[in-house]
Amino acid sequence: MTDTLTAPRTGSPDQGADVLLELQHVSKIYGDLHAVDDLSLQVPRGQWLSVVGSSGSGKTTLMNIIGCMDTPTRGSVLLDGRELGRLNASQLTDIRKHVIGLVFQQFHLIPHLTAIENVMVAQYYHSMTDEKEALAALENVGLGERAHHLPSQLSGGEQQRVCIARALINHPQLVLADEPTGNLDEANEQLVLDIFARLHAAGTTLIVVTHDAHVASCGQRQILLNHGRLVGEKHNVGGAGRRESDMLDFGQGEPDTRAGDASALRGEEAQS
Ligand SMILES: Nc1ncnc2c1ncn2[C@@H]1O[C@H](COP(=O)(O)OP(=O)(O)OP(=O)(O)O)[C@@H](O)[C@H]1O
Predict the structure, then answer these.
(1) Residues with a CB atom less than 6 Å from ligand 1
(2) pLDDT band of 211, cuts 50, 70, 90
(3) pTM of the model
(4) CATH architecture of 19-99+172-265
(5) CB contact at 8 A, 229 and 25
(6) Ligand 1, atom 28, residue with closest C-alpha
(7) Fewer CB near the terminus (10 Å): N or C of the chain?
(8) What percent of the chain has pLDDT over 70?
(9) What is the pLDDT of residue 170?
């Protein structure tokens, strides 16, 4: 595996400070249900942010809104200095193509295409295919030797790394990963975390939804959602990839402990 991941393209020079993403009082409402409830958040450029919360707390809904796959009922989202609600469909498509890279728990690879062809499909939607670049992307995630295998011939961990290569092919400034290690064993989880650590070191902003306390602790910052609200936050004192952490509780309400996520934010995991 090579040591470098391509640095993200920089944003426009006229944007304020170094905030890549800002949510202002965002809600997503279905009937009586507030899937996301008056959530405000700033994510500095280059931050590795973990999002935790029990099942149904609104994590995926939030990611879909940030990833321009869904729109909020109320509130505004500013990404790279642009307010998403003011953009038309083709501008939103451009943001999805050029600014964001998506990694899912379900790999969503096209089964009859090889690893390299799956990566080249992403290139095709972006601009034009380039086999050399696609191979380099696979080499970056340690899969150069498996480039011509079908997804069915790859392990779950290898398939996830193909997805990451595909997500990174356009050098996104922001990588959104929804349970990226949910289907992986510990060894493959670590490979994915190592890739994220290299991306982070190269300046990419990462937002990672996870139920796994270890994966969450690898980010620089963790936020806890409960019933769509941001109810807790902590910063990992040692920075991304380190486990020492310190809790900063905003005291906005008691976390829902159903899935055990609150214990992670109270720092009950091993503080090695
Ligand atoms: N299209 C929809 N219509 C109605 N309710 C929805 C819709 N999408 C999500 N919800 C509801 O919004 C809430 C938040 O869902 P979401 O998928 O964001 O939670 P989550 O935190 O990602 O859960 P999980 O960890 O189980 O994936 C849930 O109660 C869910 O049932």
Answers:
(1) 30, 33, 35, 53, 55-61
(2) very high
(3) 0.83
(4) 3-Layer(aba) Sandwich (3.40)
(5) no
(6) 56
(7) C
(8) 81
(9) 84
Cβ neighbours around 31 below 10 Å, total:
5
What distance in angstroms lies between residue 253's CA and the mean position of ligand 1's atoms?
20
Domain layout of the chain by residue ranges: 19-99+172-265
- Ligand 1 centroid–CA 16 distance in Å is 33
Residue with the smallest CA separation from ligand 1 atom 10 is 35
Amino acid (1-letter code) at residue 137: A
pLDDT for 39-73, tens place per residue?
A: 999 999 999 999 999 999 999 999 999 999 899 99
- Atom 11 of ligand 1, residue of closest alpha carbon: 35
The answer to whether 195 and 5 are in contact (CB under 8 A) is yes
- For ligand 1, the distance from its centroid to the CA atom of residue 43, given in whole angstroms, is 22
The closest residue, in CA terms, to atom 2 on ligand 1 is: 30
Between the CA of 124 and the centroid of ligand 1 the distance, in Å, is: 32
How far is the centre of ligand 1, averaged over its atoms, from the C-alpha of 234 (Å)?
24
What sign does the dihedral 217-219-221-222 (CA atoms) show? negative
Dihedral sign of CA atoms 171, 172, 174, 179 in order: negative
Residue 109 alpha carbon to ligand 1 centre in Å = 24
Exposure b/e, 65-95, CB count within 10 A at least 16 = b = bbbbebebeebebbbbebebeeeeeeebeeb
Residue among 20, 35, 22 at smallest CA distance from 73? 35
| Cα dihedral 125/128/132/137 (nearest 10) | -30
For residue 53, give the ligand 1 atom closest to its CA: 21
- Prediction ipTM score: 0.97
Per the CB < 8 A criterion, the answer to whether 149 and 117 are in contact is no
